[in-house]
Amino acid sequence: MNQQKQLIFFILIIFIFQAPVWSQNNPKIKTVVIDPGHGGKDSGTIGKYGYEKDLVLDVSLKVGAYIEKYIPGVKVIYTRSTDVFIELRNRAKIANKHNADLFISIHANGVNNPKPFGTETYVMGLDKESKNFGVVKRENSVILQEDNYQEQYGDFKPNSAESYIALTLFQNAHLKQSLRLAQLVQDQFKNRVGRKSRGVKQAPFWVLWTNKSPSILIELGFVSNPEEGKYLSTDEGRDYMASAIYRAFKQYKIEMDGPIEESTNSTNREEDTHQQKTQNDIHFSIQFLTSPKKISLNSRKMKGLKNVQEYKINNMYKYTYGSEKTLDEIKKVQTKVRKKFPDAFAIAFKNGKKISIPEALKEIKN
Ligand SMILES: [Zn+2]
């Protein structure tokens, strides 16, 4: 080996040993785009408990808030964060404009049959028997509500099966990663939240087609199924679904970028205040309303409840009624509130910070 070759050899060795450190400093997952389906004049599917557009917005904002809180290095971008109409073609454009590393579209299913239920996650592609054509048609048909859609989408007709042939003649550069993320989401729904999984599926969704990053479309469940519709209409149910998606995202990021240093700033501050207080204040209340926007406490939406309290968590405003020291007492209040708000449920606070009911009971015991 001459001197020059030796030098190149050493540089190569240094580079190889530096590589893992180098990749950690340049994470692959920096920007995630969260796409709440529908919005504005497009309500999506309509169930007994409300519109798809509202429930998917709430879950999306919750997912984003979890990511922002616990994985500070990741930028979260929403295609919409309020109840507005966004054209399908512009959703992928937003992702591509921000160089998204992941695209997560969130929807809910609905059919003219109360029986089907369960969650499913889609990646772009074609299943051989076109079994998923119904879902695809429904989710793509929003195009018909857009102005000048013929100009914007050319010959593509969301209701014609032939139109989809063109969509499926493409190379999915991110199929492997999309499938991995989709699987993680379904695993979380099934194993951690106990929802029925209808599996990972492939179908030609327009919103996934033009994306330049790994992309998935989640159907949280069927609003047309009485039980699932009710579950998704509760704040608690939506929170479980959102935390499942968050954990799937976190797992995916760990697989791509290595361990995550979780943010601890907020908890440190909480701990400080706790140390200053010798006695912890534990109380229970009834949460009956959640909104992405602030609601006046005198609003008719309170259905006449007086002395309502508001707290904000994960960018959502939550409204509670009553304050009791024991779970038994608050259960009596819950019975009253449920006459106006059937989905109201008990929550617990420790020094003004929300904690779980089991945690609160443990604290009282101690
Ligand atoms: Zn939808």
Layout: helices, strands, pairs:
Layout: H1 3-25, E1 31-36, E2 46-47, E3 50-51, H2 52-70, E4 75-78, H3 88-97, E5 102-109, E6 119-124, H4 133-140, H5 149-153, H6 163-168, H7 175-192, E7 197-203, H8 206-209, E8 215-222, H9 226-233, H10 235-257, H11 265-276, E9 282-291, E10 309-313, E11 316-324, H12 327-338, E12 345-350, E13 353-355, H13 357-365
Helix pairs in contact: 2-10, 7-10
Bound molecules: zinc ion.
Residues 37-38, 44, 52, 107, 139 line the site of zinc ion (ZN).
Describe this structure in words.
This protein is of the alpha/beta class and 366 residues long. The chain folds into two domains: 25-257, Zn-dependent exopeptidases (Aminopeptidase); 272-365, no CATH class. 43% of the residues lie in helices and 21% in strands. The chain has helices at 3-25, 52-70, 88-97, 133-140, 149-153, 163-168, 175-192, 206-209, 226-233, 235-257, 265-276, 327-338, 357-365; strands at 31-36, 46-47, 50-51, 75-78, 102-109, 119-124, 197-203, 215-222, 282-291, 309-313, 316-324, 345-350, 353-355. Strand 2 and strand 3 (50-51) form a beta hairpin. The longest helix is centred in the first third of the chain and has 23 residues, at 3-25. The model is unreliable at 15-23 and 264-278 (pLDDT under 50). The structure holds zinc ion. Zinc ion (ZN) binds at residues 37-38, 44, 52, 107, 139.
